[in-house]
Amino acid sequence: MASEKMIEVRVDMEEGEPLGATPNDKLVITKIQQGTIAEGKLRIGDQVKEVNGVKCKDCNDFFRALRFAAPCARIIVNRDDKKAEELEARVHIPADRAKIIQRREGYVYELATLVWVQNGPKLGLGIKHFQNRVLVSRVDPGTLAEKCLVLGDHLCDVDGVPVTDKDVARDLLVKNLQEKGKVTFVVERPESIDAKQWAKQALAANVMQPPSVQMNDDVRNIAAQYRQALPGLKTPAKSAMSTGRSARQVQIVEQTQTHEIGHDHEGKALRKVK
After folding, report:
1. pLDDT reported for residue 108
2. Which ranges carry the PDZ domain (predicted)?
């Protein structure tokens, strides 16, 4: 039985009141803000078709129709219950992993899961790091990566481990697929025009980025303790470079040696070069 259906969602609203639902390029709702009038009415995964009888082909049509929708917006959406449940599960990021996200305007965040299937599709994933971000640089058609990732995605972590270097991310990905058969990522996905433009430029950049491997917790703790203690450290009474003997001055003397080099003009006078 098909879970997809066309339904009308009625949302009471005052003039100028924000709906609180964010659609993507295909008018699929990807985010619903808590405490807004859209909460409990629209669902993530709903695809908007029209508002108050006005057909919507893009986001401009949608927001223009909402501007004049008060006191009630009658929104026709294409709702797939199964797909909605999957998408809602993806946008629910565990609290311990949500802490690492530095949320930015123009991006949506979700939890992507990649499951390895024996004798199934290939991985088909390429990644690069740019400005301390691991970006998806290649997604091959018909592969595992295509099911949950898109070009330009920023992989914030791999199974809860923050990553800023592509080699570290790749090693974690392969290790976890081999040991667990699946791997998850907290993904930052560009949604706005500016965000997508940045991702496009980042993927096109052919700049060798230095590795940006995050130090282990114990190393960072030791470094932090040393930094705190550094201002209070005293200058040693005796230099570590001293042998205990009386200091001697070392004089460096440059000596010039002349070496004669053979050439094809033996016995002939060479022209002077100005």
Report:
1. 86
2. 8-81, 111-182
